[in-house]
């Protein structure tokens, strides 16, 4: 219903997984942004990373691509911290992640160019460092958001589709548990009603036998 109104009003956003997200490329959203959002929302330890990631998307809506780039990179930094990997920069955290055994040497070699780009992008186009008005465009920011999302999903060692399947399973289990509780409450109420009716309709002999 919400998305129908947004579409009818020609609003380039839709509501999904509890968040408003630009429509953009539906394939990239389904395969990259959505799994990352679900992953971050599923575990309280990712709270800071989730807040940063959603902030990046919000800043895009506010036409603040430079801030969005900074927030996207910060979400990756917070994701590393949630894995108990510290460091002065994302690149430094990647090195420390290998030392801590969070990722393999091959993973580090594979991810290093992407992490270095994310780090440099924040420095050059983000609003926290060497920043000039107009340096960053929405396209730049969207790229930063997608790269950050892909990095966090990769670092989680989870497949995007498995993340969504796990979410669906949790929702199904929660719905089943809620239904079971509802059935149990209904059964208890019926049992109590039967007992009450039996009490009201029962007769007692007041005579005391000798």
Describe the structure.
The chain has 210 residues and is mainly α. The chain folds into 2 domains: 2-158, Four Helix Bundle (Hemerythrin (Met), subunit A) (Up-down Bundle); 159-198. The protein is built from 8 helices and 2 strands. The chain has a two-stranded antiparallel ribbon. The longest helix has 42 residues, at 160-201. The protein is elongated, with a radius of gyration of 26 Å.
Key features?
210 residues, mainly alpha, 2 domains, two-stranded antiparallel sheet, 2 strands, 70% helix, disordered N terminus
Helix content: over 70%
Please tally the β strands and state the result: 2
Mean pLDDT across all amino acids: 79
What proportion strand? under 5%
Instruction: Determine and state the CATH class of the largest domain.
Output: Mainly Alpha
Supply Rg: 26 Å
CATH topology of the largest domain, which one? Four Helix Bundle (Hemerythrin (Met), subunit A)
């Amino acid at each position: 219903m919400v998305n129908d109104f947004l579409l009818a009003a020609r609003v380039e956003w839709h509501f999904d997984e509890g968040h408003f997200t630009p429509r953009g490329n539906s394939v990239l959203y389904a395969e990259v942004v959505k799994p990352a959002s679900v992953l971050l929302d599923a575990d309280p330890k990712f709270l800071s990373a989730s807040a940063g990631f959603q902030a990046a998307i919000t800043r895009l809506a506010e036409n603040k691509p430079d801030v969005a780039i900074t927030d996207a990179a910060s979400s990756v930094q917070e994701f590393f911290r949630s894995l108990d990997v510290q460091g002065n920069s994302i690149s430094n955290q990647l090195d420390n992640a290998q030392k801590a055994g969070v990722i393999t040497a091959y993973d580090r070699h594979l991810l290093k160019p992407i992490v270095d780009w994310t780090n440099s992008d924040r420095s050059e186009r983000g609003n926290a460092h060497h920043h000039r008005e107009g340096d960053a465009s929405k396209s730049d920011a969207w790229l930063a958001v997608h790269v950050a999302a892909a990095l966090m999903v990769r670092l989680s060692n989870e497949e995007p589709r498995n993340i969504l399947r796990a979410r669906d399973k949790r929702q199904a289990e929660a719905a089943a548990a809620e239904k079971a509780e509802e059935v149990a409450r209904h059964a208890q109420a019926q049992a109590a009603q039967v007992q009450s009716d039996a009490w009201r309709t029962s007769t007692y002999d007041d005579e005391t036998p000798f």
